[in-house]
## 1
Amino acid sequence: MPPHMSYPGCREQRKQVLGLCNLVSKSDEDWREAAKKDKFADFVIITTTDQQHKDPVVAFARKGYDILLEKPMAVTPEDCKEIVDVCKASNVTMAVCHVLRYTPWVTMIKDVIDSGRIGDVVNIRLTEPVGFWHFAHSFVRGNWCKEGKSTFALMSKSCHDVDLIAYWMNPRKCVSVSSFGKLSHFTKSNKPAQASSRCLDCPVEQECPYSARKIYIDAYKSGNTGWPVKVITDIVDLENITKALRTGPYGKCVYDMDNDVVSHQVVNFQFDDGATANFSMVAFTKNICAREVKVYGTKGEITYEGGWDRMHICDFRTGNTEYWPIENKYPTEMAGHGGADFQLMKTFIEALKNGTAQLATNPEATLRSHLLVFAAEKARLENKVVTINADGDFVVQQDEATAHTSRATQQFLIDQGVDFVAKDGWPPQSPDSNPMDYAMWDSLAESEKVYMGQLIPFIENKRNKAKDILKTG
């Protein structure tokens, strides 16, 4: 362990880890026990399951702990907002593990954009190829296979990527999103007729790309004792791997699972200056999470794919393409994501000692990008374009429109001297507070006037009858 850090406790004891890392043998079975104690450390790292982030963050923040929180921040907009509010009120540092912000290629793309070298950015295209067996491991058989147990796939897998788009586009603000996607292939209807319920007993296992034997046993025999093999058993050897595949979820047929998260999704973003961005998450790929990026500007374009040691920058003015080397200064052998895991941890510690300016993101920026993820999922589920407000919150304009009386109708009735009671005004997003088509609104207002002009005699008649009834009553 780094000499400038000590570990006063952890949630649960694992003797092997304690021995390897020289950790003191103190632990609590539940985070709530630790939260009840007097403050005993400078910060906490919260890596509970996705649905169990908010409560420990709130509890430890109120105790005065700085917090490093695994992404996503939380699984509802309300919980995300509460986390930010409590951390701010408690005056503690809270950073979400947007680890990709610390990769050299991400910061290089941002630097090139901000330099103006490719002119004004008009579009960003970002693809996350999840990987066919990685998706089967994590999102069909694994912990993130059901929204009810975790959260929806765009949040659990790709809030990283939406955050990157917001980061690269900053200071532009997203004003609307649309999204499409579904769960394909990994369903009971696609199970081969001869397939068994478990891969180790399946007569067609060798023909299946999602064979658990291939993903775990063959990987172990090839020398892989890390991820994903170590996920399915605490003791990584052939006996325990085989036992896990015969008894646990990772050995089940991918077509027999109760998974429900999408296997592919696209999200379209519109920004306040007219620029756009497109994000795609796809399960069925050879590459594993090696992002593919294109940034299109008015004077040039940037091209990068995960694993490249150079970034391609084309200058439209000269027609030349330059190849910029990507220098990784981080000790990649110490962590994943090309050493960015190590850099995230190092930066967080330095920020606690010297100030948070060194952190690549902050709670407010994380909240805003998370709200974009929630908005995109709402757009997918409801097949609608979702408007993003100035504060980052979102609304589907059609949601409440039928329950309100428009301002045009109200004003016309007032002008005609007609008494009326309106349930509410038209939603504030329209027309004055929302960048919508004013010509369309004017046309709507005029058509309402024509309709109301025909309706006025009827309203007057009803009003007079009501007055007569009151007089004679």
## 2
Amino acid sequence: MNLSDLSQYFNRLDLIKDTANQIIKDFDMFGMEVKFSGNAYNAYEELFEQIEPHISQLIHSNQQKFMGVLYRIDLSDEQIKKAVQENSSEPFSAIVTDLIIKRELQKVVIRNHYKQP
């Protein structure tokens, strides 16, 4: 499943909540707070607005921690390079933030798909 194939899951409240919880957990491991109101209708924007400043700050001041976040979330250099090429007019931190949210959703979707009934 590609990151670009996730649009069909953006309106599933259960998956959105699980994705937000995964993001909160992963960022908390690095001492960064992310909150989620529970409103699935603007979840992407809500999470993006909180994550992007963290990513921007890490890019500019703590490259090692930035790489740790990418490793924890399981984003590869190839995924990032491809996204930068496709969205060259966007700020790097915005591109990475978008990838983070989509990758976390992808992990939740895959986990739910293989979960025992």
## 3
Amino acid sequence: MKILIAQLLNQLVLSQCVIAQYRYQIIQIFILRSMSVSKVQKLFFRFSYYKNLDLTSPYPSFQARDMTTTHTMHYITKPPCDPKIMTFGAFHTDHMLEIDWTEKMGWSRPQIIPFKSFSIHPFAACLHYAIECFEGAKAYKGPNKTIRTFRLDCNMYRMKQSAKRLSLPDFDGAELQKCIEGLLKVDQDWIPDRPGFSCYIRPTIIATEEALGVRASSRAKLFVVLCPVGPYFPSGLKPVRVFCNTTTIRSAPGGVGGYKVAGNYAPTVMPLKEVQQIGFHQNLWMLPDGLVQEMGVCNLFFFWKNKQGERELVTPQLDGTILPGIVRDSLLELTRDMKQFKVIEKKVYIQEVIEAISEGRMIEMFGSGTAVSIQPIEAIGYNDKIYEVKYDPKLNAGELSHQLFDMITEIQTGNKPHKWINVV
């Protein structure tokens, strides 16, 4: 039986998207077949979620070569490159990308048009049933003023998976990437060239069928908007205090926690407001049994010594309840290439975390995400007690998280050539 399973695994590795999408379910089947948990984890988490991306579509898709551009007649005054002014989501660029879809006609031609507000029917499915998904990526201007995107192909892949989960129309991810690059060229003057600044890219698909009722929408709109943003930490990294939420969960097994869909975010607003009122910055999301998931909208990393004294960088495994973060994936590859400590994806329970802190084995904790890149953690609140987490006050972070922040930044800004960067 084990030989048969191994042969099946080798065949499945050829289809990364199948494993990426159904990895958790397949793991459960193999465990039931008496394979050890550790062996199954080693087999399934030895490759990236984003390896060998398939961005193609079996259905007719829009094509970037058909894209038209209408330039605005009313250019917006650009804000100054001041981190106190150019905050996240505060400003938009002059243009946007828009592509419509209907069940009868398929995709329309992509259009770059002047930024505008939408006129939308009050019955539109996105307004009532949250049938919408989105992405978040960034573009940068490097030392020679060239435009660079960071792993945008991964965002296209993840968006295709989210759209499929909501029965929204499929598309060719490579063609959408080309369209986005065209939009970046049109609005290239909006992309800041100062260190720490970037242009946030927000692709979105919304269901626009003009009828009430929970069902697959017969109409949809794909649009992309751009937002110039300053550094998340204007004066350097800043650690946060997180609250271990034992009464509210972000996502459940079998749900949509592993997809970037709108319905995952609205329910987190009230719990965030509540913990901020008691002195914390974010929630640490867990399941009722203490299984750790995410922090706010970030993936989590624990750098500790195990009970054998070995250093390990541990992050919760992708079990379907956790978003497969692109920065998360990047950090896993960078740290594995270091070959300085074990890098592990596995189930992590809050009891293990508290034990590691209490026994002095926790070296540092941090989160990761597109907006923040790296987010150091200085303390966690759990069961009416505060547990302080080590970090270097001079760095406002742990040594590893500070090193990784510098590494990611060097790659994103073009100071260090890397396969993850695409020059537009």
## 4
Amino acid sequence: MGKERRLSNILKSDGKAFIVAMDHGTFSAPAGLENMGEIIELIKEGGADGVLLNPGAAKKYADQMIGLGLIMRTDLPPTLMSKDAHESRKTFGVEQALSLAADAVIVNGGTGTGVEEITLDAIAATVNECEPWNMPVIGEMVPGGFDSPKELKNVTNLAANARIASEIGVDMIKMPYCEGFADVVKHSFVPILVLGGAKTDNDVDFVCSIKDAIDAGASGVAIGRNVWGHENPKLMAKALAEVIHGNASKMDIEKILR
């Protein structure tokens, strides 16, 4: 299968993607993901384009995922029991992604002392491994690495991370959003998906922040807790789908979520 065909299962005809990240179970046992099959059905009904899963979940819920794009994570983070946080270690390969009919793989990245020595090598190795198989690679680029402070996630650092990942050869980037994001997009060769971050309390403000990201040039989102952790995942998915693919206004968002 060609790379463009796989990417078309993630990025729709408008060049945008709404991905729900559900890969949190290798860190802990997250409340809200006890019944992933049910959540997958709800977010599919709400308008999600694809899901981000670990290999075990992709295998378990293959039937529920018919009609959705699949991004498979290739690395493992430190668990909640880890005394010393460390960067994710690449553990899964392209063969596993192919066996699960994945449309892309994702690997954690980021820059900074003690971070890039591991993560940039992992991204480059993944690109080299996947290229002969036409398997798209998504670099998850977070300045400072796993769980870094907010002040590191500024325009300068995000733009550098986007450019570095582009130069290494990824096909897409997942990264945090910040004010001035249009300047980040200018430095990327490839589409950027904005990650969702920590669970928020104000639904309208959160969805409006995603609208700001799309307006700034982001090609979509990969959001987890703010979708599957919502009291009504289908409704939140619908609001996000309308913003990403339907150019919904703040008034539209308020009508959907009230």
